[in-house]
Design a protein that fits this description.
Keywords: Acyltransferase, Calcium, Keratinization, Lipoprotein, Membrane, Metal-binding, Palmitate, Phosphoprotein, Transferase. It is built from 14 helices and 40 strands. It is an alpha+beta fold. The protein folds into 5 domains: 89 residues, no CATH class; 137 residues, Immunoglobulins (Immunoglobulin-like), CATH 2.60.40; 302 residues, Transglutaminase-like (Coagulation Factor XIII, Chain A, domain 2, Alpha-Beta Complex), CATH 3.90.260.10; 115 residues, Immunoglobulin-like (Sandwich); 114 residues, Immunoglobulins (Immunoglobulin-like), CATH 2.60.40.10.
């Protein structure tokens, strides 16, 4: 029959070799031209997907229409043998196809090492945009650059489109150029080729499917091969062209690679710290982060812009209006979920959300929202940190001031006092350039996932340029006015007059935005970053920023009133403040700043409140001085000792054990109104965690957790939560009731799984006590027995790369010692 191009036909293995495996005998026969002409549909191709041999259709009268073949095993991959075999078949007659795709996704391989993704779990190829990566293709024959064509197809999202950047066609080129999707052959080995693939620094992040398309110049149709694995594309803070580029290596280690951090809470004078396991590299966390993006309303084409991504993450971390990750709850009733103060890790929360297919997890408050946001942003490649603002204002009417209203008798008007000052509030900073804003406003951007106020109809906040906040440029996006009010609004006191109108009686210019804190780079110390958010209090630059911002608020004339302020009131405490279970003692200082004596009347009340500034009940209301008292001369002060007995607050406290002392009074000579609000908390004890013995990977160890009840009463329903990345999965330990002033001890047994410095974190939760937690540093090493039967060089390389030289059984000289178990 006349020669014709053979069509590729679908085949099936079913019935091809009934009852027996195909023969493996090598029978290589070179047919002459006459024999070729006699073939009827015979496959002249030595390699087929379903028939990897030289095969020949056999004439048969049976009803079995399945091809019957003689199996011819291809020669081994020895170059000479292989080429001798192939030279007998013209390349032009063998259609180019891909046998397999190796994405070179090993954690120890070049791709993940160079892209700083070797800490992620999973076998997908995890890479960062704007940087080359390599893949290896096995073909059915050697690649011929003159006749063969090859390109990659990368697709992400449900409806990939080239115009949207979600369907990427990667051509094969001779030279790679920056900021373009291109591939280049960098290595050939018979029928294998290695490609270096370049991605632009603006590429869409997310999960990409990979297809390799091949064709030859004489072919009418191309063939495709789908990779069994996917590519995960992340932002790249190591790439100068990426808008999230961060040029300090130590900061990249902290804000991208560090999976453990510190979150601060309390009050400005009683700053507490708790360890938080971000766990962005933990198994299932990257999958959860990608799931969050998919569940959002943002189209995949928007995932190339970190501003869009951060704004969506801010909305998706809370469950307020889009079935996001975490349900906020400030009621004090957490019976159908987990108390916010019991969490110490993002891992369990995100894995629950993923495994439930997007059912919001209960419950969280601001530090939990912030911890999860840090995890998600770092996981996606955006530098991020948790930030705590003490005395954080919540402006509800866009006045850019925090307003407190009194009636004619100087009693608080509760229904008007919608603004509040939180003892502390935790949000996030993320690092990126802002090409959508005027020059100079890139760098740290504030983003808040706690559902406080809506932004464009959705509970979210940011990203707002920290530089814009500092200078009072509240007209710039996103949500800059709200964050400015949190850190730098003035607290304005108003009194109602007899005609029902209000007059401004006092302003506190230093009432909010104190000790803005984050974990320091490379240590567990607290770093004060207040100077990034605001100029020095009282400076001319700070006043200009406040007055500039106020002009864009709902009360632009608030600073037009002049007031006499020559007497001031201040509240002080000793040390770190009162402890839970004891009397609370504070000192009230009344200072005379004038050159004349002053007589003052002062009243006080103390109320139990949530840390958000919402008061629940008044536990004490007294006149600090029933009769007017004198403060004689300039720069003199009078001290009044103030005490709140334990018996008066023991049954009234709510979460965080927070209280607010409100002072009000009047100066007789000038009619100046005095007003001051001071919040404080009753400190709780820490958990004491003691490791028992040395830590070795794969060897069981233990840790002792000790807690002493500080109250003279029984604690009901005590529950411990224990977790340590690389040590112990998060779990609960129900203890039950703990008697007054009694001590309880737990012993936790676990098997370390990862080398290097780790932290074991525990928390205690019950109705009477919250924010009780502890942490222990545990340095894991490898026992000598770990290397028995393993590749010592690989083991040493793992340790050397991770800089675990300070492990207890691993020294710089690579000496090993036997652990106690061996």
């Amino acid at each position: 029959m006349p020669g014709e191009r053979l069509a590729v036909r679908d085949t099936s293995e079913v019935g091809r070799f009934p009852g027996a495996a195909p023969p493996t005998k090598v029978e290589l026969t070179i047919h002459n031209e006459e024999e070729k002409k006699q073939e009827e549909g015979g496959c002249r191709r030595w390699f087929r997907k379903m028939c990897p041999c030289c095969c020949k259709r056999q004439n048969s009268t049976s009803n079995d229409v399945t091809d019957k073949v003689e199996y011819v095993k291809p020669p081994d991959s020895d170059t000479d043998t292989y080429l001798n075999f192939m030279l007998n078949i013209p390349l032009s007659e063998i259609k180019l196809s891909v046998c397999s795709v190796d994405l070179l996704s090993s954690k120890m391989g070049q791709n993940r090492q160079e892209h700083h993704t070797d800490l992620y779990q999973g076998d997908e190829l995890i890479i960062r945009r704007g940087q080359t990566f390599q893949i290896e293709l096995e073909l059915n024959r050697p690649f011929n650059a003159d006749n063969d064509k090859l390109h990659l197809d990368l697709r992400t999202g449900p409806l990939p489109m080239v115009s949207k950047g979600t369907h990427v066609i990667v051509p094969l080129v001779d030279h790679l150029e920056d900021e373009r999707w291109e591939a280049k052959i960098v290595e050939k080995n018979v029928n294998k080729i290695k490609l270096s693939v370049n991605s632009p620094a603006s590429a869409v992040i997310g999960l990409y499917g990979v297809t390799v398309t091949t064709s030859s110049s004489k072919d009418e149709a191309a063939t495709t091969h789908n990779s069994s694995k996917n590519i995960v594309m992340l932002f790249n803070p190591w790439c100068e062209e990426d808008v999230v580029f961060l040029d300090d290596e130590e900061e990249r280690k902290e804000y991208v690679l560090n999976d453990i951090g510190r979150i601060y809470y309390g009050t400005e004078k009683q700053i507490g710290a708790r360890t938080w396991n971000f766990g962005q590299f933990h198994e299932g966390i990257l999958e959860a982060c990608l799931f969050i993006l998919e569940k959002s309303d943002m189209p995949p084409s928007g995932r190339g812009d970190p501003v869009n991504v951060v704004r969506v993450i801010s909305a998706m971390i809370n469950a307020q209006d889009d079935f996001g990750v975490l349900v906020g709850n400030w009621s004090g009733d957490y019976s159908d979920g987990v108390s916010p103060s019991a969490w110490s890790s993002s891992v369990e929360i995100l894995r629950k959300y993923l495994s439930s297919n997007g059912t919001p997890v209960s419950y969280g408050q601001c530090w939990v929202f912030s911890g999860i946001t840090t995890t998600v942003l770092r996981c996606l490649g955006i530098p991020a940190r948790s930030v705590t603002n003490f005395q954080s204002a919540h402006d509800t009417d866009v006045s850019l001031t925090t307003d407190v209203y009194f009636d004619e008798n100087m009693k608080l008007i509760d229904y008007l006092n919608s603004d509040s000052v939180w003892n502390f509030h935790v949000w996030n900073d993320c690092w990126m350039a802002r090409p959508d804003l005027p020059p100079g406003l890139g760098g740290w951007q504030a983003v808040d996932s706690t559902p406080q106020e809506t932004s464009q109809g959705t509970f979210r906040c940011g990203p707002a340029s920290v530089n814009a906040i500092r200078s009072g440029q509240v007209y710039l996006k996103h949500d800059t006015p709200f964050v400015f009010a949190e850190v730098n609004s003035d607290k304005i006191y108003w009194q109602r007059k007899l005609d029902g109108t209000f007059c401004q009686i006092q302003s506190e210019k230093k009432a909010v935005g104190h000790c803005i804190s984050t974990k320091a780079v490379g240590s567990d110390e607290r770093a004060d970053i207040t100077h990034l958010y605001k100029h020095q209090e009282g400076s001319e630059e700070e006043r200009i920023a406040v007055e500039t911002a106020s002009r864009y608020g709902s009360k632009p004339d608030v600073y037009s009133s002049a007031m006499a302020e020559d007497v001031c009131v201040e509240v002080k405490m000793e040390g770190e403040g009162p402890m839970m279970g004891a009397d609370a003692q504070l000192s009230i200082l009344v200072k005379n700043l004038s050159s004349q004596p002053r007589r003052t009347t002062l009243h006080s009340q103390v109320a139990v409140m949530y840390y958000t500034g919402v008061k629940t009940c008044i536990v004490k209301m007294v006149n600090a001085e029933p009769r007017p008292f004198s403060v004689p001369l300039h720069h003199t002060e009078k001290t009044i000792e103030w005490v709140l007995p334990y018996q008066q607050y023991q049954n009234q406290l709510v979460d965080q054990a927070a209280l607010m002392l409100t002072l009000s009074g009047r100066v007789s000579e000038t009619q100046q109104v005095l007003a001051n609000q001071t919040s404080f908390r009753l400190r709780t004890p820490d958990l004491n965690i003691t490791p028992l013995g040395d830590a070795f990977v794969g060897k069981e160890m233990a840790a002792k957790i000790t807690f002493t009840n500080p109250l003279p009463r029984m604690l009901k329903g005590v529950v411990f939560r224990v977790e340590g990345l690389g040590l112990q999965k998060g779990h609960e330990v129900v203890v039950g009731d703990v008697g007054g002033h009694s001590t309880v001890t737990l012993t936790e047994h676990f098997i370390p799984t990862q080398p290097g410095p780790r932290k074991l974190v525990a928390s205690l939760d019950c109705k009477q006590l919250t924010q009780v937690h502890g942490v222990a540093d545990i340095v894991e090493g490898y026992c000598e027995m770990f290397f028995k039967g393993n590749d010592v060089e690989i083991g040493l390389d793992i340790l050397q790369r991770a800089n675990y030289y300070n492990s207890p059984c691993f020294l710089v000289t690579f000496d090993l010692k036997m652990c106690n178990y061996c």
